[in-house]
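Quick one:
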Amino acid sequence: MSKDDISTLPPGTVALITGANKGIGFQTARKLGTLGATVLVGARDEGRGATAVAVLAAEGIDAHAVLLDVTDQDSVKAAADRIGRTFGKLDILVNNAGVLLDHGIPVAEVTADRLRETYETNVFGTAAVTSALIPLLRRSGRGRIVNLSSSLGSLGVNSAEPERLAPFQMLAYNSSKAALNALTLMYAHALKADNIKVNAAEPGYVATDLNGHQGIGTAEDAAATVTRLAVLDDDGPTATFQSETGHIPW
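Output:
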């Protein structure tokens, strides 16, 4: 299904987006909600989650705040339990929550602690949320998982074009996205028999809080790629890494 083919989603579609109170996550929630999904706005801060939901609700979107800190296993379990009790299933999971903690730090000076802190959200947090929600995605019968990655984590691209890394010497962030890509592949193959499609999205160099709004794209533009992968038909791909313009090497 191309982005031009998207009109509405099946009635009762439920989508959870982590880190959805702002940026790409919020715009993804807005797009999925506009297509008819019930959107669950995952947010670490209850107040910010409620504010985001109020904006979406004012636009006629069925939105609900879900308190969710992907680095806290108790928070992840509580969110999964709540979704299960309230909706009984989950159709779409967008693992959007992420951190960038080593911008401007020379590679040789990035500490193991900085790596651990980055991986806690970008890798371990994604794994924790995905693992907790797989039972609900299986109940969907056509679950979709989209992981927010980055071409900075593409070994294929960066080994072929090492010069592109010059302004982005971020050991923790870049390697965490490479690890996230590996998770994407593993989950995609493990869940294929359940008709759960798992893909990674490259949002592009987007102006968000993550990079101090230095990007040249918009969060709305990035959300279009994420949404396209979140609403794939049964004949759509799995185990792919895609940008707005097409496939990216792992």
